[in-house]
Amino acid sequence: MKKIYLPKAVLLLVIFSTLTATVFAQNVTWTQKKAEKWIKSNTWKNGLKVTPHQSVNAVVFVRQYYKNKAEWDKAFSFIRDSDLVHLKPGKHVIDGDDVYATITEGPEKTFEQSAWESHRKYIDLQYVITGKEKIGVAPVANAIVTQAYDDKADIAHYISDGKFYIGDPSAFFLFFPADAHRPNIHVDGYDVVRKLVIKIRVVD
Predict the structure, then answer these.
(1) Do residues 180 and 141 lie in contact, with contact meaning Cβ atoms separated by under 8 Å?
(2) In this model, does residue 14 exceed pLDDT 80?
(3) At what angle do helices 32-41 and 58-67 cross, to 10 degrees?
(4) Which class in CATH covers the domain with range 31-201?
(5) Which of 38, 42, 104, 44 is closest to 75 using CA atoms?
(6) Residues in Cβ contact with 124 at an 8 Å cutoff, skipping those fewer than 6 apart
(7) Residue 172: which of 183, 160, 163, 162 has the closest Cα?
(8) CA separation, residue 146 to residues 8, 48, 157, 161, 177 (Å)
């Protein structure tokens, strides 16, 4: 009888420990230092090889992660378990409308063709699978709206100054509602870029 009930007891203990850790994390006052330490701990990765880009807001990341841990884990598992290099371009459902991915492959935009944007309903996880692209990041609070927020499309457009980085397969970017971003800008020598964007629903 013990052999029958022991696995159930272990499972319940794991579930209880996970819930306890999540509740604890949700009640932590996350400082920049604590959030960066959490990212470096890799406890959230579950075997994921790539890391967040240096531009990622660590405090917002950890808060959103623990508010919606199950969905984030599904997003990271998709990256970890999928053959991203050969996955068919287009939309891939991960968890209904809460988490879904899009694979694109093709030429990038000129700087003039690109635009600053932000979203309210979804967080963007953007990852360059092969190639390189330039990506701009700026606070929405400092940007000037050129196209008001479209609720149906979940997007607004801006003009802004910002910092520009090179996106490549070594790291993924995260763009939260407060982050204006300007992605898909061509980098010389990389005419075709394969990219993954995962949409993760925002939890207030």
Answers:
(1) no
(2) no
(3) 70
(4) mainly beta
(5) 44
(6) 173, 174, 175, 181, 197, 198, 199
(7) 183
(8) 57, 38, 6, 14, 17
Q: What is the DSSP secondary structure assignment for residue 38, as one 8-state letter?
A: H
Which pLDDT does position 28 carry in this prediction?
Answer: 84
Q: Tokens in use for 66?
A: 């623990």
Residues in the chain: 204
Give the tokens for residue 67.
């508010």
Cα torsion 109, 187, 40, 11: sign: positive
Closest CA to 100 of 194, 176, 203, 199: 199
Do residues 110 and 186 lie in contact, with contact meaning Cβ atoms separated by under 8 Å? yes
Of the chain, the percentage scoring pLDDT greater than 90 comes to 86
Structure tokens at 6: 């022991």
Residue among 55, 47, 102 nearest 73 (CA): 47
